[in-house]
Amino acid sequence: MARWGEGDPRWIVEERPDATNVNNWHWTEKNACGWSKDKLKELLVGLKLESEVADVTLTEMEKIDGEAVANNRKGKLIFFYEWDMSLIWHGRLKGGTGEHEGKIKIPNLSEENDVSEIEVSVTLKESNEEGEIIKQYLHHQGSEKIRERLGLYISSLKEEFSKGMILPKKDEILNDNKEAQQISNLSKGFSNKMHMNQVNNKAQTTNNINKRKIDTTTLELSQTFQCRGEDFYNAMTKPEMVSAFTNGPAVIDSKVGGRFELFGGNIIGEFTELVQDKKITQRWRLKGWPEGHYSTVSIVIDQQEDHTLVKMSQSDIPKSDMEGTKENWSRYYWDAIKRTFGWGYFM
């Protein structure tokens, strides 16, 4: 029998104040069907599609069949949704003589399809010359606007049903007043070692920062994760997932030139290259670094047969911050990602 405190951490009930789902090990599920139906109606019914060609309004949700659930398994969030919808549209051609009606069908809104791949088909109740022009408009420009709304549903689903799915341990239960302090402490922790060196050399840095070039070095790390390459890419580029492993608000605009801000503003930068599921490159800086000084972070994601190998290279790190940077990548990125999403274990 294991000694007190030496048992399998998955089964140490005292680590959860409510004695449930210790370390998020067990499968938990939230039903998102009712919420999803309301959200899809909110986003689509009443949507006005206006252009120089025609003015069209989606007036009614004729059919909405399907389901949506959010799951947590070993700290990994899994979203499942599958919807088959039909909407009624009414529209008028600019300069036209009358109003026309038809249907828009969306048969395959699911997690298996990218938003750009979602089928949006358009039918016309009574075929005529004006109606066919409106139909073609909806098939091309109109369908893109509809897909944008479907994308908003997906992001809202993940944001709403991420809340409370990853349960905190006993020592992570904080009241609202302490939450801000936790984020502050986490931010300080990320840069603590770096700041120690900066304080010791403050006078020298102040005197010499404008007289000489900053002495820099390069850090290279590799780490294995038990997930798909796509999963890891999302963990670094999806706001809700970044917020989850950093334990605080995160600004993530995942496009080339888009900015990011983590750990209460202690880490900031912008994305300079994004290769879907393969590579992420960033201009990256720590708040305490000399003003205007950025490093370059390159993350290569290599999915293997049963795991994903991540190789990170960071150039232009001030030499005095090298050890602190290395330690904090391990602690606040790699370990935090594995702990939050359960990717340190074979699933």
Automatic annotation (TrEMBL):
GO terms for molecular function: ATPase activator activity; protein-folding chaperone binding. Residues 29-163 form the Activator of Hsp90 ATPase AHSA1-like N-terminal domain. GO terms for cellular component: cytosol. Pfam families: Aha1_N, AHSA1. GO terms for biological process: protein folding. It comes from the Eukaryota. Belongs to the AHA1 family. This is Activator of Hsp90 ATPase AHSA1-like N-terminal domain-containing protein.
